[in-house]
What we know:
The complex is a heterodimer. Chain A is of the alpha/beta class. Helices cover about 40% and strands about 25% of the residues of chain A. Chain A contains nine helices and ten strands. Chain A has helices spanning about 45-50, 85-90, 105-115, 125-135, 150-165, 180-195, 210-215, 235-240, 245-260, and strands spanning about 5-15, 20-30, 35, 60-65, 65-70, 90-95, 170-175, 200-205, 220-225, 225-230. Helices cover about 85% and strands about 0% of the residues of chain B. Chain B is built from nine helices and no strands. In chain B, helix 2 (about 15-45) runs antiparallel to helix 3 (about 50-65), helix 3 (about 50-65) crosses helix 5 (about 90-115) and helix 7 packs antiparallel against helix 9. The longest helix of chain B has about 35 residues, at about 15-45. Chain B is flat, with a radius of gyration of 21 Å. The chains are: A alpha/beta, B mainly alpha.
Amino acid sequence: xxxxxxxxxxxxxxxxxxxxxxxxxxxxxxxxxxxxxxxxxxxxxxxxxxxxxxxxxxxxxxxxxxxxxxxxxxxxxxxxxxxxxxxxxxxxxxxxxxxxxxxxxxxxxxxxxxxxxxxxxxxxxxxxxxxxxxxxxxxxxxxxxxxxxxxxxxxxxxxxxxxxxxxxxxxxxxxxxxxxxxxxxxxxxxxxxxxxxxxxxxxxxxxxxxxxxxxxxxxxxxxxxxxxxxxxxxxxxxxxxxxxxxxxxxxxxxxxxxxxxxx
Amino acid sequence: xxxxxxxxxxxxxxxxxxxxxxxxxxxxxxxxxxxxxxxxxxxxxxxxxxxxxxxxxxxxxxxxxxxxxxxxxxxxxxxxxxxxxxxxxxxxxxxxxxxxxxxxxxxxxxxxxxxxxxxxxxxxxxxxxxxxxxxxxxxxxxxxxxxxxxxxxxxxxxxxxxxxxxxxxxxxxxxxxxxxxxxxxxxxxxxxxxxxxxxxxxxxxxxxxxxxxxxxxxxxx
Lengths: 263, 221
């Protein structure tokens, strides 16, 4: 097994009295695509948000590339804010379900803003980098367009390019195709597939089981704030070890079967 | 003397023009104070930190709920008594109006910033941007669009509000008008000309705000 890039160690996350992550431990190996599946409310997205340090955690700790990124506020005097944001922010890229592009900036400025401001890159260098990334996601002709003029799929690909521009060591994808019209899902998944093939370490929360089956090196099944099962996609999709995993996959396949017949 | 006689006022036009300049000066200074202090107050209110939020809240409510005329008088007559520092009539009026209007700007800006979806903050944060850069490049440019119309209205309101400085003798537009009216016994003609002068001052401001609004909208399409 490759060296873990992200280590999630016994993390507890609560909102008030509501425990969303209940002692989650996970390691994401360098160069692997790890896909997290599970019913809504299982804590998948929260796990990603904790790794991206958008949420403080109450217990446990998260290490990124061997460095502490987040520690439980109840168990450590060093909360999420103690670790400087600038130090680790480069390591983690995140793409959201709702793209979250900056609507007042055109495509190239969306991509170059953070490299220029955070990394101190010159505008010329940042734009050269931005253009190479736009080429990579197939949108080099959209350089000067504002996000509102783009389709959802195009916006999401710009969002991926924007995250890549910070040259992160790991990319987090939080249900990035869930808000898209069905015919636009493919182009985003293709971009993600290419990223995985290029060796990018990825942690992907998705309902796209086809993507999980074909691209994932590891599949993690979460339910009720805990990891129920983690294994290779061949294993988990063909012979899930746990009853809960099996029930979830059967419900999902049933629905896909129905929609396929109807469609 | 039943007819209107604007001709008599003409000889006072240079005085009126001086009044216009003082009104403009009062407006420029108080808008500048108001915008800067208003932004600081809005950020303090939104900071989520009690030590910042509370003083800002008290400040805003104090200046919103007491009459600006009284605030001007306090600063003009009260400040020298309390501190020995005399700002003069113009200075006291400009500062008092600026402090007063900052409370209104603060609420406008607070609403504008709070209206930006929190996912924009999150997107900036995962890109590693600090608070200052996030505000400057992501949040405020978007908030600007939302706050332009009420900000324009407030600026126009303030320009006319500078007439309150006449109460402490600042020779601004309205004060000059009153003096001329007293001398000529022609209050209707004089004040009508004063009103036209206020219109000439404020309407271009309205047009400028419309133009900025249109430009920002065009950039987004």
